[in-house]
Amino acid sequence: MRGRIIATLTDYKYVIALVSVFNFLLTPIHIAVSGFNPGYVIVTNFTLVILGSSLIASTKLTKAFTYVLGLLTLTAIWMEFAHEGSKPLTIFRLVISFALFTNLCILLLGQLRKIKQVNLQFILMPILGFLFLGLIGGILFEAIDIADPNSFRRVAHFYSYSFYYFSFISITTVGYGDITPLTAPAQSLTLVLNIIGQFYLAIVIAVFVGKYINVKS
User: Fold this and answer.
1) 129, 185 contact by CB (below 8 A)
2) How far is CA 147 from CA 87, 141, 143, 150, in A?
3) Is residue 126 very low, low, confident or very high in pLDDT (cuts 50, 70, 90)?
4) 3-state secondary structure of 54
5) Cβ 92 vs Cβ 74: under 8 Å
6) What is the pTM (predicted TM-score) of this model?
7) Could you read off the pLDDT of 91-123 as tens digits, one per residue?
8) Which residues are bridge partners to 154 per DSSP?
9) Phi, psi of 181 (to 5 degrees)
């Protein structure tokens, strides 16, 4: 039974990771529908992201490293929630979260290089990488806001969720204008994410088409 569960988690690890991230992106809806404390909903959904995303590690070494980072991140998230307003805990959570999702992006790149044919995994991995990029951007935006609370003008605010929302509309170059970067660091990071988001999509499409042509030929 245990072996079957592990095999199922391995086979569907990219799907599980994608679902967990998309679930996090729906956090404002969960808050509105459930009526729960927004902070509790955010940390719960972010916990699911970490648990689901950690499944993509494949070797013993990468699993051990990823699980340690994941455990430290979970500990930081819940300790921060229990001690609201603790700046040292917030900084620790941001640093370890950045390390975790950067590690996950590196793992995805390594796994993507090994795929020789176009299949479901090859399609899901770049999508997941794009979502991880958005999460990393949110972490960096939150770090900038901690360094200078006047870095952004916000119309609506769902705790730290606002930074992830702004990160995703930045990498997709949507720019609704409800959140505006005001300081030089915030504006610089916004521009960098805009450029990275466009190049990421162009490179992924090029790689996908090239791999498809190679398979067909």
Assistant:
1) no
2) 10, 10, 6, 9
3) confident
4) helix
5) no
6) 0.88
7) 999 999 999 999 999 888 888 777 777 677 777
8) 179
9) -75, 130
Residue 170 and residue 197 in contact, taking contact as beta carbons nearer than 8 Å: yes
Encoded tokens for 180: 């505006």
User: What residues pair up with 179 in beta bridges, in sequence order?
Assistant: 154
Burial of 202 (0-12, 13-18, 19+ CB in 10 A): exposed
Contacts with 55 (C-beta within 8 Å, 6 or more apart), sequence order:
9, 10, 13, 16, 17
pLDDT at residue 180 greater than cutoff 80: yes
CA atoms within 13 A on the CB side of 175: 7
H or E, element range at 188: helix 184-216
How many Å apart are CA 41 and CA 35, to the nearest integer? 9
Decide if 163 contacts 25 (C-beta within 8 A): no
In this structure, what token pair is assigned to residue 200? 């990421």
Query: Residue 156's pLDDT is what?
Result: 61
Local confidence band at 183 (pLDDT 50, 70, 90 cut-offs): very high
3-state secondary structure of 83: coil
Task: Tell me the per-residue pLDDT of 31-77, one tens digit each, with 9 for 90 and over.
Answer: 889 888 888 888 898 899 998 888 888 888 998 999 999 999 999 99
Give CA separation, 2 vs 5, 7, 63, 67, 133, in Å: 5, 9, 18, 19, 33
Contact, 21 vs 128, CB < 8 A? Answer: yes
* Segment (H or E) for 180: strand 179-181
pLDDT at residue 56 in the model? 87
